[in-house]
Amino acid sequence: MNLLFTAVPSAPQRIIGGSATTIDNYPSIVALLYSVSNNNFRQSCGGTILNNRSILTAAHCPFRDSVFRWRVRAGSSFAHREGHTLAFSTFIFHPNFNANTLDADIAIMRTSTIIPLSNLIQPGSIAGSNYNVADTQVVWAAGWGVTSPNGWSGAEQLRHVQIYTINQNICRQRYAAVSRTITDNMLCSGVLDVGGRDQCAGDSGGPLYHNNVVVGVCSFGISCAHHLYPGVNVRVSRFTSWVQANA
């Protein structure tokens, strides 16, 4: 299957602290819907279209779940209406995924039917293995997650927020203070020592964009938009070969 990979960065680019946006700005993002009883599917995670059959997301989203409990909505600005909704046939988890540490928190969800690509449904440009994002670079996160750190319900309309990449050693030191390990497979983002802008619950699995290239997959954090603890993403460039082989 054809995939879009970007080898190196181009020249210097339910969400908290962001604003509403529309799917035409992010045609590669999808809402992942979950249901315990195989009906009344509700938005629970985000994902990125890889090609006409595969979605990139965080492994912890569908981990240990049946494919029948998940659906994907593509081509819509809204979590629960419009666009196209498809079922899944299989989930592919990275073999090194650790559910406790969330290292290698990356998975591919294969749809049971072809994803109908269009102007509003497009594969994302995935970071190549040599795509290294420098510190304090502008990145954009998007999703339908909750809009406040203590919120319970996600946003119905897609939202986005501008944040920044965080120095790896600083992020590692911050999380070491609470006994969490930041590995080289992770990419930290936020507004360090300020907070107020971040991904949050419901945004897991969704893309982090640098100059329209997907460099991160939303993974975890402490609270949301915390001034001391940045959000943590999967560093996509560490998994380019695996994505290419399994999409």
Automatic annotation (TrEMBL):
Q: Name one GO molecular function term.
A: serine-type endopeptidase activity
Q: Which GO terms describe its biological process?
A: proteolysis
A single Gene Ontology CC term: extracellular region
Keyword field: Disulfide bond, Fibrinolytic toxin, Hemostasis impairing toxin, Hydrolase, Protease, Serine protease, Toxin
Database matches in PROSITE patterns: TRYPSIN_DOM, TRYPSIN_HIS, TRYPSIN_SER
State where the protein is found: Secreted, Extracellular space
One Pfam annotation, family name?
Trypsin
Predominant localisation class: secreted
Q: Where is the Peptidase S1 domain?
A: 15-247
Could you say which protein family the record assigns here? Belongs to the peptidase S1 family. CLIP subfamily.
Query: What job does this protein perform?
Result: Fibrinolytic activity; shows preferential cleavage of Arg-Gly bonds in all three fibrinogen chains. Contact with the caterpillars causes severe bleeding, due the anticoagulant effect of the protein.
PANTHER family, A to Z: AT26814P-RELATED, POLYSERASE-RELATED
Name the UniProt record assigns to this protein? Peptidase S1 domain-containing protein
Per the UniProt entry, what species is this protein from, by scientific name?
Answer: Heliothis virescens
